[in-house]
């Protein structure tokens, strides 16, 4: 059985704390961005679905068809995404998850959470070669996630009564290049990575205590450490500085770096809206405000 149209949706994510230090065994904290969505629609086609290497959408759909025993299915996909690519917001994971849900919906097949996660991670391996699974896990979650490499995932309760402003620099992030940059520092990087790990733990504790001041200060310190590692960029530094000069409790780059997004912790919605206007004037190409 098939429908005239299958529909699937997924939301994006952002790293709150733990960029780069997570590679070295320290925790990372990631947040789902429930209002920033991808929608995928599946329609009948005159041609069978084709697998293109290095393409997560094509791999996600192919993995579904293989799982369902429908490799020769004649379908096509239409993706509408609010998530910019290569900004550390989980674009490829969100597209994969939306596509998998759409394919299963089209064929009127039941899809359990475990199967969805396995298929999404298969597709993510095309995009990221050796993904941690954090993007897929957070894009599948409605709550914040803590991740430690070789240990696993746990959920974090978030009820801070504050706001996170996400400012897109408009510059593609370069995660692999940034990771190599950190590796090239050798022993020199280790104290900075340890401090980043400690700051992540401070933020985790501050979330439990609803201590916005400590959380914001730790975020700002983390940006300084990431800049010292050489993985920030000038526009990210400028946006962080502007945010801090205009009432933000904390601000930092997010994701692999050398582009991507800046995140800003703010107490009041009105302050967030005012700051959004200012950061647009200062070069941010897009801005979202999420409730914490």
Please outline the helices and strands:
Blueprint: E1 6-17, E2 28-44, H1 56-68, E3 75-81, H2 91-106, H3 113-128, H4 134-139, E4 144-148, E5 152-156, E6 163-168, H5 175-184, H6 190-209, H7 212-228, H8 234-245, E7 250-254, E8 261-266, H9 269-281, E9 286-291
Antiparallel strand pairs: 1-2, 2-3, 2-4, 4-5, 6-8, 6-9, 7-8
Characterise the protein shown here.
The chain has 2 domains: 6-154, Ribosomal Protein S5, domain 2 (2-Layer Sandwich); 159-291, GHMP kinase, C-terminal domain (Alpha-Beta Plaits). Strands 1, 2, 3, 4 and 5 form a 5-stranded antiparallel beta sheet that branches. The longest helix has 20 residues, at 190-209. Helix 2 (91-106) packs across helix 3 (113-128). It has 9 helices and 9 strands. With 292 residues, the protein is α+β, with helices and mostly antiparallel strands. The protein is globular and about 55 Å long. The N and C termini lie far apart (42 Å).
Order of helices and strands: EEHEHHHEEEHHHHEEHE
CATH architecture of the largest domain: 2-Layer Sandwich
Q: How much helix, percentage-wise, in residues?
A: 40-55%
- Looking at the structure, the CATH topology of the largest domain is Ribosomal Protein S5, domain 2
- Count, helices: 9
Q: Estimate what percentage of residues fall within beta strands.
A: 15-25%
Mean pLDDT value: 93
State the shape. globular
Radius of gyration over C-alpha positions, nearest whole angstrom? 19 Å
Q: Give the tally of structural domains.
A: 2
Distance between the termini: 42 Å
Low-confidence stretches: none
Tally of strands: 9
Summing up helix and strand content along with how strands pair, one would put the structural category as alpha+beta
- What is the CATH class designation of the largest domain? Alpha Beta
- Tell me about the biggest sheet? 5 strands, antiparallel
GO molecular function, one term: ATP binding
GO biological process, one term: isopentenyl diphosphate biosynthetic process, mevalonate pathway
Protein name: Mevalonate kinase
GO cellular component, one term: cytosol
């Amino acid at each position: 059985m098939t429908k005239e149209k299958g529909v699937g949706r997924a939301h994006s994510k952002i790293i709150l704390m733990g960029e780069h230090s997570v590679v070295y065994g320290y925790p990372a904290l990631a947040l789902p961005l429930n209002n920033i969505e991808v929608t995928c629609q599946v329609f009948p086609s005159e041609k069978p679905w084709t697998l293109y290497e290095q393409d997560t959408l094509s791999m996600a759909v192919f993995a579904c068809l293989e799982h369902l025993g429908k490799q020769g299915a004649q379908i096509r996909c239409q993706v509408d995404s609010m998530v910019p690519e290569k900004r550390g917001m989980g674009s490829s994971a969100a597209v994969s998850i939306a596509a998998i849900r759409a394919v299963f919906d089209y064929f009127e097949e039941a899809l359990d959470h475990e199967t969805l996660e396995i298929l999404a991670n298969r597709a993510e391996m095309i995009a990221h070669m050796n993904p941690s699974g954090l993007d897929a896990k957070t894009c599948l979650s409605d709550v914040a996630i803590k991740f430690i490499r070789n240990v696993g995932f746990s959920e974090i309760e978030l009820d801070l009564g504050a706001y996170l402003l996400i400012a897109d620099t408009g510059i593609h992030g370069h995660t692999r290049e940034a990771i190599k940059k950190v590796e090239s520092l050798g022993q020199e990087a280790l104290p900075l990575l340890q401090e980043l790990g400690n700051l992540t733990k401070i933020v985790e504790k501050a979330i439990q205590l609803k201590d916005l001041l400590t959380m914001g200060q730790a975020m700002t310190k983390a940006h300084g450490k990431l800049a010292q590692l050489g993985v920030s960029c000038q526009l990210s530094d400028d946006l962080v500085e502007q945010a801090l000069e205009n009432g933000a409790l904390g601000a930092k780059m997010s994701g692999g770096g050398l582009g991507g997004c800046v995140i800003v912790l703010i107490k009041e919605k009105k302050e967030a809206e005012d700051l959004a206007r200012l950061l647009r004037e200062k070069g941010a190409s897009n801005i979202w405000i999420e409730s914490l």
